[in-house]
Amino acid sequence: MSTPFELAFKHMPTPAFIVESSSGKLTSYNRNFEVLFENFNAKPAATWVSLCSDATSADDWHKLNIKIQNGSIERCESLIQVGDKLINMQLELQHLGDAVLACVYNTDHMDLSAAENTLLKFALTESSAGLWIWETHSDLISCSKSIAILLGCPQGKTPRSTPEWHERVHPDDVQRLASIVDEHVANKKKYYEAEYRILKDDQEYLWVKERGRTYTRNTDGSVKKMIGFVEDISHQKALEEHLRNQATFDELTGLLTRGAALTHFKKQLGLAKRQYTPLTMAKIHLDANSRLTTLSMEARNIAIQTSARYIYKKIREADVLARVDADKLLLLLPNTSVKDAKNLLNHIINPTEDEKTSLIEGNSDPMDFCIGIATFPEDGETIDELALSANQAVEDGQAKCKQIVVN
Known about the structure:
This protein has 407 residues and is α+β, with helices and mostly antiparallel strands. It is built from 14 helices and 15 strands. It has helices spanning 4-11, 31-38, 48-51, 58-69, 111-126, 145-151, 162-168, 171-185, 234-248, 258-275, 297-314, 338-349, 353-361, 383-400, and strands spanning 16-20, 26-29, 75-82, 85-95, 99-107, 130-135, 140-143, 191-199, 205-217, 223-232, 279-285, 320-325, 328-334, 370-376, 404-406. InterPro entries: Biofilm_reg_signaling, GGDEF_dom, Nucleotide_cyclase, PAC, PAS, PAS-assoc_C, PAS-like_dom_sf, PAS_fold_3. This is Diguanylate cyclase.
């Protein structure tokens, strides 16, 4: 008497057959698989070698069986001998210990094919996601309507091959994308993800994320078809850039933040050590007279912003200016002696009449500035030591009511 499992296999709606792992013999097949052959007045072959036109010897089955066991092949396409015809079938293969279960989930000559092709065509034309299918042997790419919308081109003008696709990818991203896809095709990964810029018809680049995976394989394990999606991530990239800028640049003044400035400071200090050149650091207190504390928050922010922009315009291109506290800036002056630093800073605390007018309109007054100077290596050999020394000079300047103090 048949077991419930055997009855379920015999009557399952998906055409299926079972192959003995050790020999490659077809030990069983269900009714729907048998019907495929009856449509051509034929019966299923007795072995995998006689069933599959791609197999020439029992050794071909053993190689395929090993790939099925280790999970490197889950689906494949093969030309199956049905009577005197060769029919392309897509098979799903599952290792069952001493046997392999093969389910036919698509073929050129069954209703299932028409159903799947209809769904596939629907996906390619109606899906809101950017769907593509790539036939690796012919290098034919089919794109959904949404990819055409993404690229701003007619659907008939979407890329149809790898070279056409790569023509749209940003030159700086092409090699990386190609390497990622090649690695997947070489069976090193089950799926892949890649982010890159792609050119739209309006000649603007758009950031996209591509996800792809193998859809079907040949019986030798090589990739036959791949399927994937392309997603617009330009908003995400814009947010990432905004967050990076927030981490690098102060939002109020546009100057470097403490953390970002530290990297620049260390590079300049290393250069000064190697080349035996002078390096001066200046700590600038923008509210040494505590005038800004009497202003509203909005007016205080305008004052700090005005002062920072004024000072930035007065420094040289090689100098590095950062906002390190609410009302304090740190200025690094590479290859600058104390004498030259004092001359530059004197120009800052003594604005021209036009500059003074602009500063007053922005709630700023250079009379509120107090600047402490520290030099390498006299006042320290590290950035922290120099900053501490410059800060001490500022405190001394406030106590003595002096605007520029050398430590």
